Amino acid sequence: MDKIQKSDYHEIRRKANEILEMFTELKVNLHTTSYLYILLSNTIKNFSQENTPFEMFDALYVNRLYDAIMFIHKSNNKKKYLKDITKGTLDFQDRKHSHAKNILFELELAHRISIKFEDVKLDEPDIVVKFADGDVGIACKKVTSNNNLEKQLSKGVKQIKLNGFLFGIVAINIDNLTPEGSILKQDTVKMALDKLHDLNMGFIKKNERHFLKYLKESRLIAVIIHSSVVADIPSASPRFNNLSQTTMWTMKGLEEKLKDKVGLFKVLESTS
Fold it and tell me: In the prediction, which pLDDT does 122 show?
């Protein structure tokens, strides 16, 4: 869970500056009219000890973007990834299709996985987790509606099949299935996280037949469902937070070796 305290304003400004400096360092153009440039510039200029809720939201966005974008430093193709996040809006409240947000999901998930696993790379299909006995490939997909899930699953299966992985996982981001322009308001953080868990589980139950259809004939044996929101918790300090929830679905009847290996990824189900 990302929290922004009033005393953090120097840290938030530092993060915004670091992101801008990365564009300069890698000689990637960030247009001054882009959402990302305006967000970073406004945060550097306006975020202080006396801030409005809207400035708090901007700071939360910067905090969320920072770890993901900094993960680009671990890539052998830094410039490509930095260019990719300029191709479309990064506004989390905007539900339009955006290549930039697709890439951001890959970066966010790679960063999250790297906290739990030692050797994580940005590589085909999207993320590769290396183990002594073989690599696990993760294809990342961001769905804009329930209607385009099958198309995304099909793409993920093809990406995994092209490589000799021990097994594959499809990671699906469902942020776009939350109401546009909304903030999740709950009495406690636990209640907010429970809401996200319910959202993930509802998506799994509704689409399990699709998972079975596309995964059983391939080496894909698990699906990760990920959702993130800005939450308003009046009783919490600070009141506004970034919250995310990850839920896994796995194929039944796996051989013990695969069951043990995919079980390692259950650590990603911890909330934040």
Answer: 97
Secondary structure element (H or E) that encloses residue 13, with its range: helix 9-25
Q: According to DSSP H, which parts of 26-97 are helical?
A: 35-46, 53-70, 78-84
Predicted TM-score (pTM) of the model is 0.92
Residue 20: closest CA among 4, 8, 7, 31: 31
The neighbour count for residue 248, using CB atoms within 10 Å, is 19
Structure tokens at 129: 């987790």
Collapsing DSSP to helix, strand or coil, 170 comes out as strand
88 SS3 class = coil
Secondary structure E strands in the chain: 2-3, 120-122, 127-131, 134-142, 167-173, 184-185, 220-232, 240-250
pLDDT in tens, 9-53: 789 999 999 999 999 999 999 999 999 999 999 999 887 666 666
Highest mean pLDDT among 93-102, 148-157, 253-262: 93-102
What are the residues facing 220 on neighbouring strands?
Answer: 168
Beta partners for 240? Answer: 232
DSSP category for residue 114: H
pLDDT for the residue 148: 83
- Give, for 198, the enclosing helix (H) or strand (E): helix 189-215
- pLDDT exceeds cutoff 50 at 6: no
- 73 burial class (0-12, 13-18, 19+ CB within 10 angstroms)? exposed
Q: Find the farthest-apart pair of alpha carbons in the chain and give their distance in angstroms, rounded.
A: 57
Judged by phi (left if over 0) then psi (alpha if -120 to 50, else beta), residue 182 lies in: beta
Task: Tell me the three state secondary structure of residue 28.
Answer: coil
CB-CB contact of 58 with 242 (8 Å): no
